[in-house]
Amino acid sequence: MTKKISRLQTFRIVFACIALAVLAALAVGYFATQNKGVPGSPLAVAPSFVPEYELVNQDGQIVTQDTYAGEYQLVYFGFTSCPEICPTELQKMTLALQNLPEGMENEIVPILISVDPERDTPDVMKSYLESFHPNFRGFTGTEDSVDKAMEGFKVYASRVDDPNYSDYMMNHSSYIYFIAPNGDLLKLYKTEDTPDFIAADMQSFMES
Fold first, then answer.
1. Can you give the residue range of the structural domain that contains 139?
2. pLDDT of the chain along its 208 residues, tens only?
3. Which of 10, 18, 63, 188 is 20 to 30 A from 57, comparing alpha carbons?
4. Which pTM was predicted?
């Protein structure tokens, strides 16, 4: 009798574990589905995407999604008045590029696209980017053209009037987009990703 009860208990434990695993899998699937439309969520961007935009670079020249077609791109959306996150991410991009094997860093075009076109003129972008990798390109434009670019990349940004600052700030999603020469999105890097990790990861993509 004791042996039968022990087997029954074992069966119940195994069944409970299987049930929990199934529920966990269903929960992951549910939240992944829910996050597909969340601005700035990695799941909001398909592995293959071609955002369309027409902006101007730091030299006042028109740039589109085709300007750097055929080259790797490392893209970040931010703004020059950002006090902390944006310069940290741009410095991370700079270090990641410098950590690549000799010659490989010049195969990637680092790009900052402004979410604050009202203040980020081409001249402002040009001056700001002098503090980072020399290959950096800065894109800005009209409010409508920047909005279109953000929509294509599924970027979230909104103006915030903060009494702690003399001027307004911008809340925005913070991801670094690594784009292949054919336009495919290879990877979205998060704020917690280190320069060493990003460099090694990009190198693995480029050598595969």
1. 42-207
2. 444 445 544 444 444 444 434 333 433 333 333 333 333 444 444 455 668 999 999 999 999 999 999 999 999 999 999 999 999 999 999 999 999 998 899 999 999 999 999 999 999 999 999 999 999 999 999 999 999 999 999 999 999 987 877 889 999 999 999 999 999 899 999 999 999 999 999 999 999 8
3. 188
4. 0.78
Is residue 15 domain-shared with residue 83, that is, in the same domain?
no
Q: How many Cα atoms occupy the beta-carbon half-sphere of 163 within 13 Å? A: 0
Query: Hey, is 39 helix, strand or coil?
Result: coil
Burial of 129 (0-12, 13-18, 19+ CB in 10 A): buried
Question: Do 87 and 190 lie in a common domain?
Answer: yes
Q: Are residues 152 and 66 in the same domain?
A: yes
Residue 132 maps to which CATH number?
3.40.30.10
In the chain, the amino acid numbered 43 is L
